[in-house]
Amino acid sequence: MGSASLYGLSRRSFLGSALALGACQPAAQSQTPVVSLPPLKSIAPFPVGTAVQAVHLTDPALARLIVAQASQLTPEWEMKMEYIVRDDGTFRFDAPDAIAAFARTHGLGLFGHTLVWYAQTSPAFERLDEGRVSFAQAYRNYIHAVVGRYRGQAVGWDVVNEAVAEDGEGWRDSLWSQRLGAFEHMVLAFQNAREADPAAKLFLNDYNLEWIPKKRATFLRLVERLLAAGAPIDGVGTQTHVAADQAPGEIARTIAELGQFGLAVHVSEFDVSLSRAQGFMPNRAVLERQQAALYAEAAEAFMALPPRQRFAFSFWGLRDSESWLKREDARDTPLPFDNQGRPKAAAAAWAAQVG
Asked: Which is catalytic among the residues 78, 210, 250, 269?
Protein backbone atom coordinates (compact mmCIF):
# COMPACT_ATOMS: atom_id res chain seq x y z
CA MET A 1 0.00 0.00 0.00
CA GLY A 2 1.36 3.44 -0.90
CA SER A 3 1.66 6.00 1.85
CA ALA A 4 -0.28 9.25 2.02
CA SER A 5 1.26 12.67 2.57
CA LEU A 6 0.44 16.11 3.88
CA TYR A 7 -0.34 17.08 0.30
CA GLY A 8 -3.00 14.42 0.00
CA LEU A 9 -1.01 12.47 -2.62
CA SER A 10 -0.50 8.73 -2.86
CA ARG A 11 3.26 8.20 -2.86
CA ARG A 12 5.26 5.01 -2.67
CA SER A 13 7.69 4.98 0.20
CA PHE A 14 9.82 2.63 2.22
CA LEU A 15 8.43 1.71 5.63
CA GLY A 16 10.63 2.58 8.57
CA SER A 17 11.43 0.04 11.24
CA ALA A 18 9.83 0.09 14.68
CA LEU A 19 12.05 1.85 17.21
CA ALA A 20 12.22 1.30 20.94
CA LEU A 21 12.43 4.35 23.19
CA GLY A 22 15.70 4.37 25.09
CA ALA A 23 18.09 1.63 26.07
CA CYS A 24 17.33 -1.28 28.39
CA GLN A 25 17.51 -0.40 32.05
CA PRO A 26 18.73 -2.55 34.93
CA ALA A 27 15.89 -4.46 36.56
CA ALA A 28 14.63 -3.11 39.86
CA GLN A 29 14.03 -5.41 42.79
CA SER A 30 10.61 -7.02 42.36
CA GLN A 31 7.88 -6.54 44.86
CA THR A 32 6.41 -9.62 46.52
CA PRO A 33 3.70 -10.88 44.16
CA VAL A 34 0.22 -11.73 45.35
CA VAL A 35 -0.46 -15.44 45.39
CA SER A 36 -3.30 -15.46 42.89
CA LEU A 37 -5.27 -12.92 40.89
CA PRO A 38 -7.70 -13.50 38.00
CA PRO A 39 -6.98 -11.65 34.74
CA LEU A 40 -7.82 -7.98 35.17
CA LYS A 41 -10.05 -7.92 32.10
CA SER A 42 -12.09 -10.81 33.51
CA ILE A 43 -12.77 -8.84 36.69
CA ALA A 44 -13.53 -5.37 35.36
CA PRO A 45 -16.96 -4.43 33.93
CA PHE A 46 -15.25 -2.06 31.48
CA PRO A 47 -12.34 -2.29 29.01
CA VAL A 48 -8.89 -2.63 30.58
CA GLY A 49 -6.23 -1.00 28.44
CA THR A 50 -2.47 -0.96 28.26
CA ALA A 51 0.10 1.04 26.31
CA VAL A 52 2.35 -0.89 23.93
CA GLN A 53 5.11 -0.40 21.42
CA ALA A 54 5.38 -2.68 18.39
CA VAL A 55 8.64 -4.11 19.74
CA HIS A 56 6.86 -5.26 22.91
CA LEU A 57 4.71 -7.61 20.85
CA THR A 58 7.79 -9.55 19.77
CA ASP A 59 8.43 -10.60 23.40
CA PRO A 60 6.42 -13.83 23.78
CA ALA A 61 6.05 -13.55 27.56
CA LEU A 62 4.88 -9.95 27.40
CA ALA A 63 2.56 -10.68 24.48
CA ARG A 64 0.93 -13.48 26.51
CA LEU A 65 0.53 -11.16 29.50
CA ILE A 66 -1.09 -8.47 27.34
CA VAL A 67 -3.57 -10.90 25.78
CA ALA A 68 -4.41 -12.41 29.17
CA GLN A 69 -4.85 -9.14 31.09
CA ALA A 70 -5.92 -6.41 28.66
CA SER A 71 -8.87 -5.86 26.37
CA GLN A 72 -7.64 -2.67 24.68
CA LEU A 73 -4.30 -1.37 23.34
CA THR A 74 -2.99 2.19 23.10
CA PRO A 75 0.15 2.71 20.97
CA GLU A 76 2.58 4.36 23.39
CA TRP A 77 4.20 6.60 20.77
CA GLU A 78 4.01 5.03 17.31
CA MET A 79 0.71 6.71 16.38
CA LYS A 80 2.12 10.10 17.28
CA MET A 81 3.20 12.55 14.63
CA GLU A 82 6.90 12.18 15.48
CA TYR A 83 6.70 8.60 14.24
CA ILE A 84 4.20 8.82 11.39
CA VAL A 85 5.27 11.98 9.53
CA ARG A 86 8.58 11.88 7.70
CA ASP A 87 10.55 15.01 7.01
CA ASP A 88 9.35 15.01 3.38
CA GLY A 89 5.71 14.94 4.46
CA THR A 90 5.02 11.29 3.63
CA PHE A 91 3.64 8.96 6.25
CA ARG A 92 4.79 5.61 7.64
CA PHE A 93 2.46 3.18 9.32
CA ASP A 94 4.51 0.02 9.80
CA ALA A 95 4.61 0.06 13.61
CA PRO A 96 1.01 1.21 14.21
CA ASP A 97 -0.14 -1.33 11.63
CA ALA A 98 1.68 -4.05 13.57
CA ILE A 99 -0.08 -3.01 16.79
CA ALA A 100 -3.43 -2.86 15.00
CA ALA A 101 -2.86 -6.31 13.50
CA PHE A 102 -2.00 -7.77 16.93
CA ALA A 103 -5.19 -6.26 18.34
CA ARG A 104 -7.30 -7.75 15.53
CA THR A 105 -5.69 -11.17 15.86
CA HIS A 106 -6.35 -11.33 19.58
CA GLY A 107 -9.74 -9.63 19.68
CA LEU A 108 -8.50 -6.51 21.48
CA GLY A 109 -9.75 -2.96 21.06
CA LEU A 110 -7.46 -0.31 19.58
CA PHE A 111 -7.32 3.23 20.95
CA GLY A 112 -5.59 5.90 18.85
CA HIS A 113 -3.05 8.18 20.54
CA THR A 114 -2.63 10.98 19.59
CA LEU A 115 -3.54 13.28 16.68
CA VAL A 116 -2.69 16.83 17.80
CA TRP A 117 -0.08 17.48 20.49
CA TYR A 118 1.65 20.78 21.18
CA ALA A 119 4.95 18.98 21.84
CA GLN A 120 5.31 17.53 18.35
CA THR A 121 5.62 19.53 15.14
CA SER A 122 6.99 17.79 12.09
CA PRO A 123 9.55 19.65 9.96
CA ALA A 124 7.22 18.92 7.05
CA PHE A 125 4.53 21.08 8.66
CA GLU A 126 7.00 23.79 9.66
CA ARG A 127 8.19 24.28 6.09
CA LEU A 128 4.93 23.45 4.33
CA ASP A 129 4.67 24.80 0.78
CA GLU A 130 1.34 26.61 0.93
CA GLY A 131 1.57 27.21 -2.78
CA ARG A 132 0.63 23.54 -3.08
CA VAL A 133 -1.74 23.11 -0.14
CA SER A 134 -2.94 25.35 2.67
CA PHE A 135 -1.91 24.65 6.26
CA ALA A 136 -5.52 23.87 7.18
CA GLN A 137 -5.81 21.40 4.30
CA ALA A 138 -2.54 19.67 5.24
CA TYR A 139 -3.79 19.45 8.83
CA ARG A 140 -7.00 17.85 7.57
CA ASN A 141 -5.09 15.52 5.24
CA TYR A 142 -3.00 14.26 8.14
CA ILE A 143 -5.93 13.63 10.46
CA HIS A 144 -7.95 11.96 7.71
CA ALA A 145 -5.03 9.73 6.71
CA VAL A 146 -4.36 8.53 10.25
CA VAL A 147 -7.92 8.18 11.52
CA GLY A 148 -9.19 6.88 8.20
CA ARG A 149 -6.57 4.13 8.10
CA TYR A 150 -7.98 2.57 11.27
CA ARG A 151 -11.63 3.42 10.64
CA GLY A 152 -13.82 0.59 11.80
CA GLN A 153 -11.14 -0.75 14.15
CA ALA A 154 -10.08 2.11 16.44
CA VAL A 155 -12.69 2.51 19.16
CA GLY A 156 -11.55 6.05 19.94
CA TRP A 157 -8.85 8.71 19.62
CA ASP A 158 -7.05 11.22 21.76
CA VAL A 159 -7.76 14.02 19.31
CA VAL A 160 -6.12 16.87 21.24
CA ASN A 161 -3.52 16.01 23.87
CA GLU A 162 -2.27 18.23 26.72
CA ALA A 163 -3.83 21.47 25.52
CA VAL A 164 -3.84 23.18 28.93
CA ALA A 165 -0.77 25.10 30.17
CA GLU A 166 1.02 23.41 33.05
CA ASP A 167 0.22 26.21 35.51
CA GLY A 168 -3.42 26.27 34.45
CA GLU A 169 -3.11 29.75 32.93
CA GLY A 170 -4.92 29.19 29.65
CA TRP A 171 -3.82 26.93 26.80
CA ARG A 172 -0.44 25.95 25.44
CA ASP A 173 1.13 27.79 22.54
CA SER A 174 2.02 25.59 19.56
CA LEU A 175 2.50 25.60 15.82
CA TRP A 176 -1.14 24.53 15.52
CA SER A 177 -2.44 27.41 17.64
CA GLN A 178 -0.20 29.90 15.82
CA ARG A 179 -1.34 28.86 12.36
CA LEU A 180 -4.97 27.87 12.94
CA GLY A 181 -6.02 29.68 16.11
CA ALA A 182 -5.64 28.91 19.80
CA PHE A 183 -9.15 27.46 20.10
CA GLU A 184 -9.97 26.99 16.43
CA HIS A 185 -7.27 24.35 15.84
CA MET A 186 -8.88 22.16 18.49
CA VAL A 187 -12.36 22.46 17.01
CA LEU A 188 -10.96 21.70 13.55
CA ALA A 189 -9.17 18.62 14.87
CA PHE A 190 -12.37 17.21 16.33
CA GLN A 191 -14.34 18.03 13.18
CA ASN A 192 -11.73 16.42 10.92
CA ALA A 193 -11.53 13.31 13.09
CA ARG A 194 -15.32 12.95 13.05
CA GLU A 195 -15.34 13.21 9.25
CA ALA A 196 -12.67 10.51 9.03
CA ASP A 197 -14.47 8.07 11.34
CA PRO A 198 -18.01 8.93 12.46
CA ALA A 199 -18.15 5.96 14.84
CA ALA A 200 -14.96 6.45 16.86
CA LYS A 201 -15.16 8.17 20.25
CA LEU A 202 -13.20 11.42 20.29
CA PHE A 203 -11.34 12.58 23.42
CA LEU A 204 -9.62 15.60 24.94
CA ASN A 205 -6.77 14.22 27.07
CA ASP A 206 -4.48 15.85 29.65
CA TYR A 207 -2.25 15.17 32.65
CA ASN A 208 -1.58 16.51 36.16
CA LEU A 209 -5.30 17.22 36.57
CA GLU A 210 -5.09 15.46 39.96
CA TRP A 211 -1.97 17.31 41.05
CA ILE A 212 -2.81 20.89 39.98
CA PRO A 213 -6.41 21.93 40.75
CA LYS A 214 -6.07 25.13 38.72
CA LYS A 215 -5.09 23.13 35.67
CA ARG A 216 -8.07 20.85 36.21
CA ALA A 217 -10.39 23.86 36.40
CA THR A 218 -9.01 25.24 33.12
CA PHE A 219 -9.40 21.82 31.50
CA LEU A 220 -13.04 21.67 32.59
CA ARG A 221 -13.68 25.14 31.16
CA LEU A 222 -12.11 24.07 27.87
CA VAL A 223 -14.44 21.07 27.70
CA GLU A 224 -17.40 23.38 28.30
CA ARG A 225 -16.25 25.71 25.54
CA LEU A 226 -15.72 22.88 23.05
CA LEU A 227 -19.19 21.57 23.76
CA ALA A 228 -20.69 25.05 23.41
CA ALA A 229 -18.92 25.47 20.06
CA GLY A 230 -20.43 22.25 18.77
CA ALA A 231 -17.14 20.36 18.59
CA PRO A 232 -17.88 16.63 18.33
CA ILE A 233 -16.17 15.71 21.59
CA ASP A 234 -17.34 12.41 23.06
CA GLY A 235 -15.06 11.99 26.03
CA VAL A 236 -12.44 13.30 28.40
CA GLY A 237 -9.21 11.60 29.37
CA THR A 238 -7.14 12.01 32.49
CA GLN A 239 -3.70 10.48 32.09
CA THR A 240 -3.26 9.97 35.85
CA HIS A 241 0.51 9.71 35.93
CA VAL A 242 0.85 10.26 39.68
CA ALA A 243 3.46 9.73 42.38
CA ALA A 244 2.98 7.70 45.55
CA ASP A 245 2.77 10.89 47.61
CA GLN A 246 -0.28 12.11 45.68
CA ALA A 247 -2.73 13.60 48.18
CA PRO A 248 -5.52 11.12 48.92
CA GLY A 249 -8.86 12.05 47.41
CA GLU A 250 -7.62 14.10 44.46
CA ILE A 251 -7.82 11.26 41.94
CA ALA A 252 -11.39 10.56 43.03
CA ARG A 253 -12.27 14.25 42.89
CA THR A 254 -10.82 14.58 39.40
CA ILE A 255 -12.71 11.59 38.00
CA ALA A 256 -15.96 12.79 39.56
CA GLU A 257 -15.55 16.29 38.13
CA LEU A 258 -14.76 14.94 34.67
CA GLY A 259 -17.93 12.87 34.86
CA GLN A 260 -20.15 15.94 35.32
CA PHE A 261 -20.51 16.45 31.55
CA GLY A 262 -22.07 13.07 30.95
CA LEU A 263 -19.29 12.28 28.48
CA ALA A 264 -17.22 9.11 28.37
CA VAL A 265 -14.31 9.16 30.83
CA HIS A 266 -10.98 7.47 30.11
CA VAL A 267 -8.33 6.93 32.76
CA SER A 268 -5.89 6.91 29.92
CA GLU A 269 -2.27 6.45 31.08
CA PHE A 270 -2.34 5.24 34.67
CA ASP A 271 0.79 4.56 36.69
CA VAL A 272 1.99 5.42 40.20
CA SER A 273 5.68 6.27 40.54
CA LEU A 274 7.59 5.50 43.72
CA SER A 275 10.67 7.42 42.64
CA ARG A 276 8.83 10.66 41.94
CA ALA A 277 7.49 10.83 45.50
CA GLN A 278 9.04 13.78 47.31
CA GLY A 279 10.89 11.71 49.88
CA PHE A 280 9.11 12.35 53.16
CA MET A 281 7.81 8.79 53.33
CA PRO A 282 10.28 6.76 55.39
CA ASN A 283 10.88 3.65 53.30
CA ARG A 284 9.93 1.69 50.21
CA ALA A 285 7.37 -0.45 52.02
CA VAL A 286 5.42 2.67 52.97
CA LEU A 287 5.60 3.92 49.38
CA GLU A 288 4.30 0.59 48.11
CA ARG A 289 1.35 0.70 50.50
CA GLN A 290 0.55 4.22 49.37
CA GLN A 291 0.85 3.11 45.75
CA ALA A 292 -1.67 0.35 46.36
CA ALA A 293 -4.01 2.81 48.08
CA LEU A 294 -3.91 5.10 45.03
CA TYR A 295 -4.60 2.16 42.69
CA ALA A 296 -7.63 1.37 44.85
CA GLU A 297 -8.79 5.00 44.93
CA ALA A 298 -8.65 5.32 41.16
CA ALA A 299 -10.53 2.07 40.63
CA GLU A 300 -13.21 2.94 43.18
CA ALA A 301 -13.72 6.41 41.67
CA PHE A 302 -13.97 4.99 38.17
CA MET A 303 -16.54 2.43 39.33
CA ALA A 304 -18.57 5.28 40.85
CA LEU A 305 -19.23 6.65 37.36
CA PRO A 306 -22.38 5.53 35.55
CA PRO A 307 -21.54 2.41 33.50
CA ARG A 308 -22.12 4.21 30.19
CA GLN A 309 -19.39 6.73 31.09
CA ARG A 310 -16.70 4.14 31.89
CA PHE A 311 -14.94 4.15 28.53
CA ALA A 312 -11.77 2.35 29.68
CA PHE A 313 -9.15 2.22 32.39
CA SER A 314 -5.74 2.09 30.71
CA PHE A 315 -2.43 1.39 32.41
CA TRP A 316 0.67 2.92 30.81
CA GLY A 317 2.16 -0.53 30.47
CA LEU A 318 1.67 -3.75 32.43
CA ARG A 319 5.15 -4.88 33.53
CA ASP A 320 7.46 -2.58 35.46
CA SER A 321 10.29 -3.45 33.09
CA GLU A 322 8.59 -1.64 30.17
CA SER A 323 7.64 1.55 32.03
CA TRP A 324 8.76 4.90 30.61
CA LEU A 325 9.62 5.87 34.19
CA LYS A 326 12.54 3.42 34.13
CA ARG A 327 14.42 5.96 32.03
CA GLU A 328 14.33 8.34 35.01
CA ASP A 329 15.09 5.76 37.69
CA ALA A 330 15.65 2.05 37.05
CA ARG A 331 14.46 1.32 40.61
CA ASP A 332 10.94 2.62 39.96
CA THR A 333 8.10 0.10 39.94
CA PRO A 334 4.95 2.00 38.90
CA LEU A 335 2.88 -0.67 37.11
CA PRO A 336 0.51 -3.46 38.24
CA PHE A 337 2.87 -6.34 37.37
CA ASP A 338 6.52 -6.83 38.28
CA ASN A 339 9.38 -7.43 35.86
CA GLN A 340 8.45 -11.10 35.59
CA GLY A 341 4.78 -10.35 34.91
CA ARG A 342 3.55 -11.31 38.38
CA PRO A 343 0.70 -9.25 39.90
CA LYS A 344 1.66 -6.93 42.73
CA ALA A 345 -0.20 -5.60 45.74
CA ALA A 346 -1.22 -2.58 43.66
CA ALA A 347 -2.94 -4.84 41.12
CA ALA A 348 -4.77 -6.66 43.89
CA ALA A 349 -5.92 -3.39 45.45
CA TRP A 350 -7.24 -2.23 42.06
CA ALA A 351 -8.97 -5.55 41.39
CA ALA A 352 -10.67 -5.52 44.81
CA GLN A 353 -12.50 -2.32 43.85
CA VAL A 354 -13.73 -3.38 40.41
CA GLY A 355 -14.53 -7.04 40.92
From this structure: 269
